[in-house]
Amino acid sequence: MSETNTRFRAHAQTRTARERTQSEQETEDSDELTCPECGATGITVEKRGETVCEECGVVIEDDMIDHGPEWRAFDSRERDQKSRVGAPSTKTLHDKGLSTKIDWKDSDASGSALSARKRSQMVRLRTWDERFRAKSARERNLKQALGEIDRMASALGLPENVRETAGVIYRKALYDDLLPGRSIEAMATGSLYAAARQGGTPRSLDEFQPISRVDRQEYARAYRYLARELGLAIEPADPAKYLPRFASELEVPEAVERRARELLETGKSQGIHSGKSPVGLAAGALYAGALLSNERITQQTIAEETDVSEVTIRNRYQELLDAHEQAEQAA
């Protein structure tokens, strides 16, 4: 073993010396260039891709090809992350994106259309490619679930990190044998709902109802089951996290959102948020903030955008205003 290590070390030193000698030779060759204007030999090849004479400043050659990377790395970890070794792995695909996929376009590399014989051949190849990518029942289950998660996340406008987290939750539930007896769609919806709350971009259960393929009761039960069996650390939903999205959809001024946030903070300090829907509190806070900011917005408009009843908005905004008045009197 020691002789092998010694031979490997000697080979590495010889290779390093050869590369250093080659680099020095290339540097000497570049220094021996002669300027066509003044005849000077002080030619430098700068990093911006230009060959410049140091004496007269004439640019001898520009737009040179830079064979190095276009990114910067300050340590070994960043260098490994940015190295050109293919697409990064992702938990949003059942095979983590490590396999290849035949494109659906019926054209060759030059963009020309394929013949009828080649098209039929590509159809068969795509069919077998899909079968080989998901060979076992577990892989087919995971592929279908991750497709559902991606579809619902796109409809709800959830970011990529939430989709990754949802993929991890569902994958863990699959490997822990938590899926027998439960539908794939319900568990996928429950995983995405849990991931959205963990990622700080919560969505209400009612918002999943138009896009999920199962009933609200079924995916709500699946979420509670996942949270209990996997021990998910999910904090109670904060009403203030719904404000930016609702304010953007309603196109209200920033002053309204700021007043609504102040009302929610005052309400939480007095404990009126306990046992109440965070979505209803956010909708009521926006309506109260609009009233205090002299902005004309109706309860019906807020109810349609937030999917909260007008009765809930009236109750919550009155409670928030009462808490605000009590805090001012105590101060």
From TrEMBL:
Segments annotated as Sequence repeats: 147-230, 241-322
Residue intervals of the TFIIB-type domain: 31-61
One Gene Ontology biological process: transcription preinitiation complex assembly
List of residues binding Zn(2+): 35, 38, 53, 56
UniProt keywords, alphabetically: Metal-binding, Repeat, Transcription, Transcription regulation, Zinc, Zinc-finger
Region (Disordered): 1-33, 74-94
GO molecular function annotation: DNA-binding transcription factor activity; TBP-class protein binding; zinc ion binding
GO cellular component: transcription preinitiation complex
Comp. bias (Basic and acidic residues): 74-83
PROSITE patterns documented for this protein: TFIIB, ZF_TFIIB
Homology family: Belongs to the TFIIB family.
Summary of the function given for this chain in its UniProt record: Stabilizes TBP binding to an archaeal box-A promoter. Also responsible for recruiting RNA polymerase II to the pre-initiation complex (DNA-TBP-TFIIB).
HAMAP family recorded: TF2B_arch
Protein name: Transcription initiation factor IIB
Organism: Halapricum desulfuricans
Lineage, top ranks: Archaea, Methanobacteriati, Methanobacteriota, Stenosarchaea group, Halobacteria
